[in-house]
Amino acid sequence: MTDSPDAATGSVIRILLADDQALIRGAFAALIGLEPDMAVVAQVGSGAEIIAAALHSRPDVALLDVQMPGLDGLSAAAALGRQLPGCRVIVLTTFGRPGYLRRAMEARASGFMVKDAPPEMLIDAIRRVHAGLRVVDPALAAESLSLGESPLTAREAEVLVATTDGGTVAEIAHRLFLSEGTVRNHLSSVIGKTGARTRADAVRIATERGWI
Question: Which class does domain 5-146 fall in?
Answer without folding.
Answer: alpha beta
